[in-house]
Amino acid sequence: MRIDGLKATALGGGHGLFNTLTALRYLTADVTAVVTVADDGGSSGRLRAELGQIPPGDLRMALAALMGAPAALEDRRRTDPRAAERHERWAQMLQHRFGGYGALAGHPIGNLLLSGLAEMTGDVVAALDQLIDLFDVDGRVLPMANVPLVIEADVSGLESDPRVSRVIRGQVAVATTPGKPRRVRLIPEAPGACQVATEAIRAADVVTLGPGSWFSSVIPHVLVPEQLDALRTTSARKMLFVNLVAEPGETTGFSVERHLHVLHAHASSLRVDDVIVDAASVPAGLEREHLERAADRFGARLRVSDLCVPGTGVHDPAKTAATMAALINEN
């Protein structure tokens, strides 16, 4: 599936971005991850609160994806089998969490490495580049903003009157609310983008957005004005991957079509080329026709493909890569 000379930039966060990066690595080694920076839970939340830094967790996961992707390891095996073994171990090391009940409990090694380097350099981009260099990783990982962000949402269904919304603040709170998020904002409002990230969007041949936690990992990318402008003006082919299933909490009860309507409500000027959905998620018929109209609001063509790991709500990276390659090669 390798496409010579392809430059790809993937936007997202968490496990959704991990899978997309794994997929893109089948197509090219020139992959840049642009990652959300609003996490306030777990290890990332603790380090963010203690050090005042950008939360490292999603950045670490993106780095581990580029390092441990099957295609990346296969590239290494062709030239240096021992290097492939080291990369596989290092990817596992970055993800390993300390056990026990003390101060280190729950912290992944990669979070501590990245936080330490960021403190030493005073710049999370420089810290990420140093880890890329240290571990000899192809590609790049970048934050979408240079400061830690807070997600705030208007949530309905928490009051006796369904017309009344309550403001919920924090990524974890938004992701786990029993109510229904209607709209999200970033604090600070209109944050400055990471300039290297916007450059990567403009220089790419392919830009992907999603899948992932819709309100906390996907929509935030269109709430950074400079990054949205880069998405609007890039000549790259833009592919939007919609979640296979609704996510408990954030998008409980959402149809695939509803995901698109919510994104459009936050960025009506966004245009993409392909809206890519799993065939089993949207059966042929009236539901798919409605989805085609929703995709048209982005100026996009609806693309339906077999994308999931059987029996799960997770994208299969190999199937995702094959779908992307077919779309790129059709022109």
UniProtKB/TrEMBL annotation:
InterPro entries attached to this UniProt entry: CofD, CofD-like_dom_sf, Gluconeogen_factor
Lineage top rank: taxon: Bacteria
Coiled coil: none
Major location category of this protein: cytoplasm
Keyword Cytoplasm appears in the UniProt entry: yes
SUPFAM superfamilies: CofD-like (SSF142338)
Subcellular location(s) of the protein: Cytoplasm
Keywords, alphabetical: Cytoplasm
General function of this protein: Required for morphogenesis under gluconeogenic growth conditions.
NCBIfam families noted in UniProt: CofD_related (TIGR01826)
Family of the protein in this entry: Belongs to the gluconeogenesis factor family.
Protein name (Swiss-Prot/TrEMBL): Putative gluconeogenesis factor
Organism expressing this protein natively: Gordonia hydrophobica
